[in-house]
């Protein structure tokens, strides 16, 4: 019997974005996402990062948080974390978290690797520093949830023909926990004078009944709840020990599994 994850509300697809470095162009980009009901994770350094004064010059609450976007770690100093001694990694990640958490007053546990570089040692260190997921820069051109969230490969950078990728995502005939994940830097749109790429994509993707618009952490959290489901050996009953409602597909039928309940699905 085929059993697959669905997203909140029984939706078949999820769309998420991840944009790095928090330069002033993020104001325009976050505005495009907010106007279209799309959700993005914005990855922010604590100090200079690769650009002078890259800690947002604008109001993080107004631009990101008020509209349901997520902010996440991008290394306090945008360093090659994979080459640094453990002590330096600890200081850099915790400094970054503290700086962001002073704004959110809530845990900040997502990340995008500065320069996209990582090692298995770094992944272990991040786990101990409370980081739950981290995005790479390795495009898959596919729509799969990651096996290892500390190696979360995006679907594509926005320069990689996202118009075509978006059509494939929307027209996928067998969506099964399908996630389209686009990343980049907002300053690239100004540098390359191609804001129309993301404006057109946002127009095309907005308001779809089958798509859950979510931040990276919302997808991570939901997937954790799905992974916690307990099935009977004959797959006729499922128990949801998590604190949130989970939706699944069994054969051709969708089921809502409320938090704490056991539901008959077969
Ligand atoms: Zn960066």
CATH homologous superfamily designation of the largest domain: Glycoside hydrolase/deacetylase
Share in β-strands: 15-25%
Largest sheet geometry: 6 strands, parallel
Q: What Rg do the Cα atoms give?
A: 19 Å
Average pLDDT, rounded to a whole number, is: 95
The rough form would be described as: globular
- Contiguous uncertain segments of 5+ residues: none
Structural class: alpha/beta
Number of domains: 2
Distance between the termini: 9 Å
Percent range of helical residues? 25-40%
Count of DSSP strands = 14
Give the CATH level 1 class of the largest domain. Answer: Alpha Beta
What hetero molecules are in the model?
zinc ion
What is the CATH architecture descriptor of the largest domain?
Answer: Alpha-Beta Barrel
Number of helices: 8
Along the chain, the helix and strand elements come as EEHEHEHEHEEHEHHEHEEEEE
Summarize the structure.
The chain is α/β, with parallel strands linked by helices.
Describe the structure.
This protein is α/β, with parallel strands linked by helices and 266 residues long. It has two domains: 213 residues, Glycoside hydrolase/deacetylase (TIM Barrel, Alpha-Beta Barrel), CATH 3.20.20.370; 36 residues, no CATH class. The protein is built from eight helices and 14 strands. β10 and β11 form a beta hairpin. α1 runs parallel beside α7 and α5 runs parallel beside α7. It is globular and about 55 Å long. The termini are close together. Zinc ion binds next to loops.
List keywords for this structure.
2 domains; alpha/beta; 266 residues; TIM Barrel; single chain; binds zinc ion; three-stranded antiparallel β-sheet
């Amino acid at each position: 019997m085929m059993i697959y994850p669905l997203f909140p509300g029984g939706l078949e697809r999820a769309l998420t974005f991840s944009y790095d470095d928090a330069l002033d162009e993020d104001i325009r980009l976050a505005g495009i996402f907010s106007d279209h009901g799309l959700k993005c994770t914005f990855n922010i350094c604590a100090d200079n990062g690769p650009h002078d004064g890259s800690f947002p010059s604008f109001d993080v609450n107004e631009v990101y948080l008020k509209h349901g976007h997520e902010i996440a770690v991008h290394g306090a100093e945008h360093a090659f974390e994979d080459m640094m001694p453990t002590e330096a990694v600890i200081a850099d990640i915790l400094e970054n978290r503290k700086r962001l958490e002073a704004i959110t007053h809530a845990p900040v546990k997502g990340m995008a690797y500065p320069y996209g570089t990582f090692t298995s040692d770094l992944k272990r260190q991040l786990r101990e520093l409370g980081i739950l997921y981290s995005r790479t820069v390795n495009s898959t051109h596919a729509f799969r949830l990651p096996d290892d969230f500390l190696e979360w490969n995006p679907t594509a950078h926005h320069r990689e023909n996202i118009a075509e990728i978006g059509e494939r995502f929307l027209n996928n005939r067998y969506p099964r926990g399908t996630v389209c994940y686009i990343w980049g830097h907002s300053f690239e749109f100004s540098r390359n004078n191609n804001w129309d790429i993301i404006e057109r994509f946002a127009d095309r993707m907005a308001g779809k009944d089958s798509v859950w618009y979510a931040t990276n952490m919302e997808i991570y959290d939901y997937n954790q709840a799905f992974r916690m489901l307990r099935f009977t050996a004959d797959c006729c009953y499922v128990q949801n020990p998590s604190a949130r409602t989970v939706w699944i597909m069994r054969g051709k039928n969708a089921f809502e599994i409320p938090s704490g309940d056991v539901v008959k699905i077969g």
